[in-house]
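Late entry, evening session. Most of the bench is empty. Finally got around to the prediction I had been postponing all week. Sequence below, unchanged from the version circulated by S.P.
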Amino acid sequence: MERYRKLLEHVAPAHQEQLLRFWNELSPAGRDQLAAQLEAIDFAALNELIGKYVLQRPETEIPADLGPAPYFPLKPRDGAQTALYERAAQRGAELLRNGKVSCLTVAGGQGTRLGFDGPKGTYPIGPVTGKSLFQYFAEGIQRAGEKYGCRLTWYIMTSLLNREATETFFREHDFFGLAPEQVFFFTQGTMPAIGYDGKLLLAAKDSLSLSPDGHGGTLLALRKSGALDRMAAEGVDFLSYFQVDNPLIPMVNPLFIGLHDLEKSEMSAIMLAKTGPFEKLGNFCISNGRLEIIEYSDLPAELAESRNPDGTLRFIAGSPAIHMISRSFIEKLTAGGNLKLPWHRADKKIPFVDAEGNPVKPTEPNGVKLESFIFDAMPLAERTMVLEGRREDVFAPTKNPTGVDSVESCRAMLIDRDARRFEAAGVKVARDAEGKVAAQIEVSPRAVYDDADAAEYVAAHAIREIPAGAKLYFE
């Protein structure tokens, strides 16, 4: 009873006594689990969040001085910028050779939206082979390490839901050719799900309904997991950050790395020219001299549709969630074991157990999950940098089974990227009347990491033509 009394004293000031209603029915292990979850919560701080984000719907305030963020263009504007890009690419390659860069992938999600049962990174994305997203990245990391004479460490953020399955997948596939010590798994934090009445929901009689705390939690999880300590010990100063659903991304980009360093940026980003004013990408903006991202759903239409004198969109820069982050910046933000980023409300259908202990699977949203976003760290940086990327070279997200940003579109973009590389090396690639590749091809990132690799590969294998209807894998 003493334990129950202490827990009740912990939750009662926040009016969350319902969390203990099944205490007398729980096994010792169940009591331990629930108690640990409750003791980990700062209910005073959580109550503030409930009042701000759940019991009312927060509105994004648009600063009066909001403007489009400056960025380095895809193609240099003049001779001075050309020289800067050349110097940056050389600097990036030097940093890679000196072991100053590691890779960071956020991979806490499941493949549910794809109709796939398992961690999203295990989804078979290869157009010909069906190799997984994780394998694509692993092969690219291995080849990049060879090119730059380094051994890249790969930090992978999982969730409580998929950590075990992800690690098992890597072990079963012998880490896809990487050394096991090259891969560092860590787990993001969680937040309790909250009903619309402000009450925390139970997923079971002995467990809160917990969900990942968003990719903003990556930074604090790096500290708590010991990843930052490992980076410091290995002399790693920079992290190349990307999401697990985007296999088109170059895992390390010397130009991006070098500009980040030369500009003394603490957090940098790749931007894409938006296809229209309301494309579902966050908008790179500047306010009070600080870089920030305003979500597509929050940018007022009059700003989203505003144009420059030449007719181009003013707010043209969209975010594909590709970053360079300095280790020193993460250390500064997470000093003391805390990180304060804004929270974002997500209305969800959250399974729970009711007052009688019966499981309920709602058909409509019944509560709120709170998430933090990593891009909200950018206004906290003293210096930032944005570099334009070519969409067809860096961004093919796998979010839906079909349609926009889908498995279909991703595979098509992988095929097209590989075809363009081969064409640039002199290979004749069959295309249909619309210009689409009229064959299924897949080139292993283990063999070809970039255009230079493609030219060498084509020459070494005497590839002359890819005919219509061919189904070919190059490794």
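Two things to note before I forget:
The chain has a mean pLDDT of 95.
Residues 79-97 form the longest helix (19 residues).
Will write this up properly tomorrow.
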